[in-house]
Design a protein that fits this description.
Distance between the termini: 15 Å
Largest sheet: 7 strands, mixed
Number of strands: 7
Helix content: 25-40%
Structural class: alpha/beta
Radius of gyration: 16 Å
Shape: globular
CATH architecture: Alpha-Beta Complex
CATH topology: Maf protein
CATH class: Alpha Beta
Number of helices: 6
Order of helices and strands: EHEHEEHEEHEHH
Number of domains: 1
């Protein structure tokens, strides 16, 4: 049994898809960006903090955590707070290639390791009407970059180069590799 340090339904869904036995515990971690913190440092720090925080409460079980952010030209796009902020993010991303960075961390008994996935996603050109219609679905409001590639947001995407599951929020190959280092082997 592993502990998933996350409140994300998408991460739970991915572990369920693989048939991994787990229990989810939402970590209480401040996700504020530190002054002049670079995007990859930010997501790695948060994934590690989430894993460490939950591992301190859940001794003896491997704790898997992840954090995802969207980056365009060095600027981070987290989860939008309002529909207007979501629309603004989507306007900036439309017609452009951006990176989705997802860090994964595993903690157990004082040991902590991490890995980073970076996937390029290119958005189609979108009209203001298309953006407004997508925002009106409500889907963008709890997603980094204001879109869900596994949902209606798939219609925004022109192409992807990298790990689809990393864009969803949990690059499975990295998660399974890290868990194997902690003695959790995946069996089909």
């Amino acid at each position: 049994m592993i502990i998933l340090a996350s409140g994300s339904p998408r991460r739970r869904q991915l572990l369920e898809m693989l048939g991994l036995p787990f229990r989810a515990v939402a970590p209480d971690v401040d996700e504020s960006l530190l002054p002049s913190e670079q995007p990859e440092v930010y997501v790695i720090r948060l994934a590690r903090e989430k894993a460490r925080t939950v591992a301190a409460l859940e001794r003896g079980a491997p704790v898997l955590a992840a954090d995802t952010t969207v980056v365009l030209r060095g600027r981070l796009f987290g989860k939008p707070a309002t529909p207007a902020e979501a629309a603004d993010m989507l306007r900036r991303l439309q017609g452009r290639k951006h990176q989705v960075m997802t860090a994964v961390a595993v903690a157990l008994d004082g040991r902590l390791e991490h890995a980073l996935d970076v996937t390029d996603v290119t958005f189609r050109r979108l009209s203001d009407e298309q953006i407004a219609e997508y925002v009106a679905t409500g889907e963008p409001l709890d997603k980094a970059g204001a879109y869900a590639i596994q949902g209606k947001g798939a219609a925004l995407v022109e192409g992807i180069r990298g790990d689809f599951f990393g864009v969803m929020g949990l690059p499975l190959r990295l998660a399974l590799d890290l868990l194997a280092r902690f003695g959790v082997r995946y069996h089909y």
